[in-house]
Design a protein that fits this description.
Elements lengths: L2 E3 L9 E3 L3 E2 L6 E10 L2 H8 L8 E2 L3 E9 L11 E4 L9 H4 L8 H4 L6 E2 L7 E4 L9 E5 L3 E3 L6 H7 L2 H13 L6 E5 L3 H13 L3 E5 L3 H9 L4 E3 L4 H9 L4 E6 L4 H10 E9 L13 H7 L2 E4 L7 H13 L9 E6 L3 H10 L4 E5 L1
Parallel strand pairs: 5-9, 12-13, 12-15, 13-14, 15-16, 16-17, 18-19
Antiparallel strand pairs: 1-2, 3-8, 4-6, 4-10, 4-19, 6-7, 7-11, 8-9
Helix pairs in contact: 5-6, 5-11
Length: 361
Amino acid sequence: MRAAVQHETGRDKLEVLDDVEAVGFGPGRVRIRIRATGLCHSDLSAMNGVLPQPAPFVPGHEGAGEVLDVGDGVTGLKAGDRVLMCWLPACGSCPSCKRGQTHLCLAGFMNAGTPNFKRPGGSPSDVFGFAGTGTFAEEVVVAANCAVPIPDDVPYEIAALIGCGVTTGLGAAFNTAKVEAGSSVAVIGCGGVGISVIQGARACGAAQIIAVDPVAARREAALRFGAIEAVAPEELADAKARVTGGEGFDYVFEVVGKSATARTAYETTRRGGTLCVVGAGALDDTFQVNMFELFFDEKRILPSLYGGADVLRSYERAIALWRAGRIDLEGLITHRVRLDGINDALDQMRSGTALRTCIEI
């Protein structure tokens, strides 16, 4: 089987190998033939060590495909079913799940410490899957609750995006920030997730959406997806003055994952407004506010993990909005490559030329 492998943390290139085996099939597990997967910035963060991940590993967590086989005890799935990959499945029985915060369930993270793949002739032979999945491979074996059936009218490449980036961005606007109609919004970082935040804010009825990104192509894309204005980071202060009279935006979304941009976002939020942190950052990157401004400005600081709500319901909502033409998911896919072109896809993301690259496997 072919898969793209990161041999050591810190390498900037993946090696596509043909001697990788998907392992772990058995009771409660399913084997999936991956048909399409998106390249998410979190994959780059795992490769460079910003996000912790044992190596060697197969990146990829935003995928969709076809069920090849189901293990004993699996119900609701059968060979031939079309599914998307849920990298953070809910166990249904932990305290977070019982409170209704299924997106905070840690059961899925436990999968990251168990190898998903093996190279019989490799050293080491065990290979992990990023976030317990590893969709940059022809096949993967995962727990049954990682495989979510999708309707026949949803293409694999669209389902893959819903599996992570779209759900994360839309959910930040819908579930976490709860953007109100008529409000002002700024989105800092306009890759695939940031564009999904913009689409979510537009669907919520935001009156003014300002996109902020250093890459001109992403700024141009943001205008197509619902932003009324798109500015470079150095132009944000001027936009704040013009659009809000200097008061600040009702909602500011940080979709970069760095303390510096989070601080900028905080300063761009009006008193009593909401800063929503969507970007996944490093363990050693500390965001700071002083105790007086925290008290006096009464700004809400809301982190948003995987859309901040039940992901299964979020998947259904994304599909319904896509079907109704309320959100554009096809337009998010700006590049397509085969697995052999995975390193080209990495370069496209690093340069900012791609919103989402679809890897067809």
